[in-house]
């Protein structure tokens, strides 16, 4: 069953989305739009549509960019401060989407609602699936913390394997069912695409850029020939109290959206730009791994330690791990546990004297060099020293080496 949902179902959803979507575009062009009900109840639609579209667009980019640029995403997420900021930003956007989807559903619930009269059964199915997708995403952010980090080593390899037409679901079949259903419902949304108003995503009127100006032909003279021409323009009628209140509300919401967007962009952008430009150096700290005598010569041992900059609330997530191999009485080498292909944790096979990546079959020799598989370079290593009878490792937030 898992093979169906994580290997077959994504391809079924994509094939139907493309095939039926093209058929609908060429055979029922009029329905290829959002079928907006703005003229029916503009105010209620505004409170649901604006939060939903802004929030879901940013969340989609946050999910797609790590799939396209896994190495850059891993490097950015290698610092706990940036990870916390991105997690909080994602949670805020998720709640923003929940507010929007609740508004879109609520406007259709009343029996006498004009929006309900034009809501089809497929619209209800789509809204329920989108509501579950949004709520489950918020639930994952709340109860399965640091999803931005483990997303890189679970969902990203799986999604990239689907793109390469060599599907491998080994990184996601061990995840909790709650997370798995979130992934499956995402492809369910893709499957529903050609059967619902979601098609408006690709109904972009780019031809407006080169079409000729609209020509207006009057059936009658807009101004009677004998009408007196006033040299002073007639003053416009003053707005009614309801129109004035609605305009002020819209202006307030627009300003709040600009302020919130600016703060979010500054929180996410400034640390990221600083990291990419090298303005903030990665801190390094020596951590003790234990007495020298606790590591037998010629053996490779898994060791855990705190990273170089743990946050007070990080808890167990502040711990990281490495593979420590003792080559001689005072010779140690520490390998990163992250495979250099897509960052999955490698395992040590003592009987074979090899490191193996369970995600895509990468194999490394005991000295960390590549034996076979897709990894492009050897395992990353940490500097190691012996001080006062103890083995110490020079840490950095995360030795991400994916390409």
Provide a descriptive summary of the structure in words.
The protein has 403 residues and is α+β, with helices and mostly antiparallel strands. The chain folds into two domains: 2-220 and 252-275, Transmembrane di-heme cytochromes, Chain C (Fumarate Reductase Cytochrome B subunit), CATH 1.20.950.20; 285-395, Rieske [2Fe-2S] iron-sulphur domain (Rieske Iron-sulfur Protein). 45% of the residues lie in helices and 13% in strands. The chain has ten helices and eleven strands. It has a four-stranded antiparallel beta sheet with strand order 2-3-4-9, with no helix packed on it. It has a four-stranded antiparallel beta sheet with strand order 5-6-7-8, with no helix packed on it. The protein has a three-stranded antiparallel beta sheet with strand order 1-11-10, with no helix packed on it. Strand 3 and strand 4 (331-336) form a beta hairpin.
């Amino acid at each position: 069953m898992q093979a169906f949902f994580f290997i077959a179902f994504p391809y079924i959803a994509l094939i139907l989305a493309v095939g039926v979507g093209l058929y609908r575009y060429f055979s029922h062009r009029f329905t290829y739009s959002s079928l907006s009900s703005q003229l029916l109840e503009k105010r209620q639609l505004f409170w649901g549509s604006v939060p939903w579209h802004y929030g879901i667009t940013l969340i989609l980019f946050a999910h797609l960019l790590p799939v396209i640029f896994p190495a850059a995403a891993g490097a950015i997420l290698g610092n706990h401060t940036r990870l916390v900021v991105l997690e909080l930003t994602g949670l805020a956007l998720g709640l923003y989407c929940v507010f929007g989807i609740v508004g879109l559903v609520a406007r259709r619930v009343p029996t006498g609602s004009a929006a309900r009269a034009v809501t089809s059964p497929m619209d209800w199915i789509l809204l329920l699936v989108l509501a579950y997708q949004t709520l489950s995403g918020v639930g994952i952010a709340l109860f399965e913390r640091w999803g931005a980090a483990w997303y890189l080593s679970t969902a990203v390899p799986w999604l990239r394997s689907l793109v390469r037409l060599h599907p491998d679901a080994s990184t996601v079949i061990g995840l909790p069912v709650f997370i798995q259903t979130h992934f499956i419902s995402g492809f369910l949304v893709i499957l529903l695409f050609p059967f619902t108003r979601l098609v408006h995503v690709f109904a972009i009127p780019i031809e407006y850029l080169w079409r000729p100006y609209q020509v207006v032909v009057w059936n009658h003279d807009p101004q009677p020939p004998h009408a007196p021409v006033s040299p002073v323009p007639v003053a416009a009628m003053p707005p009614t109290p309801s129109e004035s209140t609605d305009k002020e509300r819209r202006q307030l919401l627009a300003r709040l959206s600009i302020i919130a967007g600016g703060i979010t962009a500054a929180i996410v952008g400034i640390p990221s730009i600083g990291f990419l430009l090298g303005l903030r150096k990665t801190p390094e700290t020596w951590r003790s791994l234990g007495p020298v005598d606790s590591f037998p010569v010629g053996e490779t041992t898994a060791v855990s330690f705190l990273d170089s900059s743990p946050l007070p609330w990080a808890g167990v997530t502040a711990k990281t791990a490495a593979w420590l191999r003792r080559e001689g009485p005072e010779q140690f080498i520490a390998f990163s546990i992250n495979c250099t292909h897509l960052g999955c944790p490698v395992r040590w096979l003592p009987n074979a004297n090899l490191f193996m990546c369970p995600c895509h079959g990468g194999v490394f020799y005991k000295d960390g060099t590549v034996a076979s598989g897709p990894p492009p370079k050897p395992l990353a290593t940490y500097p190691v020293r012996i001080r006062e009878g103890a083995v110490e490792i020079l840490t950095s937030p995360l030795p991400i080496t994916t390409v």
